[in-house]
Specification:
By secondary structure, the protein is an alpha+beta fold. The chain has 2 domains: 253 residues, Beta-galactosidase, Chain A, domain 5, CATH 2.70.98; 187 residues, no CATH class. The strands form 3 sheets. A 9-stranded antiparallel β-sheet has the order 7-8-9-10-19-16-15-12-13, with no helix packed on it. A 6-stranded antiparallel β-sheet has the order 5-6-11-18-17-14, with no helix packed on it. Strands 1-2-3-4 form a 4-stranded antiparallel β-sheet, with no helix packed on it. It holds the Pfam family 60KD_IMP.
Length: 509
């Protein structure tokens, strides 16, 4: 065995062990820090001037004076995958990063100062006695929905409005460091989305909102700030006409929401109830909330392929009740569906493998005559019915489906804190590096099956030997779900390729 390969192997193993120890320490520090904060939060809570309402899904903080919803936590989706963790925040603020995100509603032209009138477990009533305004914030019987009823005893000439106010930046509790999935988290779409009766889904990034903003008039529809896994959306009703808007930053705050067009005879508005969704981006649930709301799960250019894949996986998971096993089963099904196309590709590659000795002989024999080399090579291909590009087209046909599946796995909130065998969270990188190592081994075996181009430069051939290791490094920072998919996909492909090579006699040597 080459002593240099032994040295490289030892370096890789030792580096992996050191990286494992370091990432484990970082993970423990993150959990301990959050649990310390959770203990402080649970004991100190909020002071005077705030009302807390909650149910089994949501924890909501309402600022009494303004009536704004300043914090929401999703109780079934903890920040850390440990007991005692707080729920993930959608609305909230941070003094460390100056991040702020909240909801506000009322009547245009009015700036009420509310007093607490009544509070229960799942509702709070606020009143401004001077302006005769009342606001009732209540948790709906529909999961992750909040109803906000603004009313005026005397009627208001201004329009009813509801808005999301947000600074730029990633969600508060979304992991941003590379080894916790930050590379994929930071790559997810972040921006405003509006759905109207004329356009089911239009998006605008915050830095693309020009002076004057974006406005769309529509009966029904919705507006949301799209971010990974969890988001807030204002859902309209078919009974009203809304002017949806997204405005550029003012004092660091971007504003997005709607005003309700006044259709009353006396041009006075007495009340309006707003419907606010604050929760996870589970496709089947969003489809029940509003038309096209599931499109807020950004799945890239091939969303029309990715979304049916999510539906299929959700159906499979309904039977196996494990998302890791679901990925394995679905990957196997995809490989079976594409087997006819894959078989043609491998047959072509097998033919090229069988011709490799003869191709090398031609290149050596006519090394001083490139034209003769090309002519003899084409003659050999024609004689044996081989096509050097025969393996490319089938791969290109499958590529959109694999890209769609990649984005589906990247955006699925169902994978967050989903366990599989020894893995406790498929949405973060593999902490044990099993998937990257296994992928490197499978790629090395696949590389040995593939025919080496005739006359390849020795230096280039040496570099190619290390490509499996280089590619496997990507899965050190990618979610474990993607690593699982690539290992299963590559493993099945290796078996299929070996079968076709053996069938065609390409493994005889």
């Amino acid at each position: 065995m080459n002593i240099r390969n032994i040295y490289w192997g030892l370096i890789i193993v030792l580096s992996g062990l050191l990286l494992f120890e370091w990432t484990s320490q970082k993970r423990e520090q993150s959990i301990d820090s959050h649990l310390d904060y959770a203990e402080f939060f649970n004991t100190s809570g909020y002071g005077d001037g705030y009302s807390i309402i909650e149910n089994d899904k949501l924890f909501v903080v309402v600022a009494t004076r303004t009536g704004s919803i300043i914090e929401t936590r999703l109780k079934e989706y903890p920040v850390e995958n440990v007991k005692g963790s707080l729920g993930f925040r959608v609305f909230g603020s941070s003094t460390e990063t100056a991040f702020n995100y909240y909801f506000k509603s009322g009547f245009t032209g009015m700036n009420p100062v509310y007093l607490l009138s009544e509070v229960g477990d799942s509702f709070v009533v606020l009143e401004d006695p001077e302006k005769n305004l009342t606001k009732r914030v209540s948790l709906s019987s529909q999961d992750y929905e909040i109803n906000i009823l603004d009313s005026s005893k005397n009627g208001e000439s201004g329009k009813s409005f509801a808005g999301l106010y947000r600074t730029a930046g990633r969600p508060l509790d979304l992991k941003s460091d590379v080894l916790s999935g930050g590379m994929m988290n930071n790559g997810s779409y972040l921006g405003v989305a509006i759905s109207t009766d004329s356009a089911p889904y239009e998006t605008t990034k915050l830095n693309q909102i020009e002076e004057g903003g974006v406005q769309n008039l529509s009966r029904s529809g919705w507006i949301a700030f799209v971010q990974k896994y969890f988001f807030a959306a204002l859902l309209g009703s078919g009974d009203y006409i809304y002017n949806f808007y997204a405005l550029p930053a003012e004092s660091g705050l971007y504003r997005m929401g709607y005003t309700v067009e006044n259709t009353s005879a006396n041009n006075l508005v007495y009340e309006h109830e707003h419907r606010l969704y604050v929760g996870p981006k589970v496709r089947k649930d969003l489809m029940q909330k509003a038309d096209s709301l599931e499109l807020s799960i950004e799945m890239g250019w091939f969303w029309f392929l990715a979304q049916p894949m999510v539906l299929a996986m959700d159906w499979i998971n309904g039977y196996v009740d494990n998302w890791g096993l679901t990925i394995v089963i679905f990957t196997i099904l995809i490989k079976l569906v594409f087997w006819p196309v894959t078989a043609k590709s491998f047959s072509s590659m097998a033919a090229m493998r069988k011709l490799t000795p003869e191709l090398n002989e031609i290149k050596e024999r006519y090394k001083d005559d490139p034209q003769k080399t090309q002519a003899e090579t084409l003659k050999l291909f024609k004689k044996n019915g081989a096509n050097p590009l025969g393996g490319c087209l089938p791969v290109l046909i499958q590529m959109p489906f694999f890209i769609g599946f990649f984005f589906a796995l990247r955006e699925m909130v169902e994978l967050r804190h989903s366990d599989f065998v020894i893995w406790s969270d498929l949405s973060v990188p593999d902490p044990y590096f099993i998937f990257p190592i296994t992928f490197a081994i499978l790629m090395t075996l696949t590389q040995r099956l593939n025919p080496q181009p005739a006359g390849m430069d020795p230096t280039q051939a040496q570099v190619m030997k290390y490509m499996p290791v280089i590619f496997s490094m990507f899965f050190v920072v990618m979610p474990a779900a993607l690593g699982l998919y690539m290992v299963v996909n590559t493993g099945i492909q290796l078996i299929q390729q070996a079968y076709m090579y053996k069938k065609s006699g390409a493994l005889a040597d």
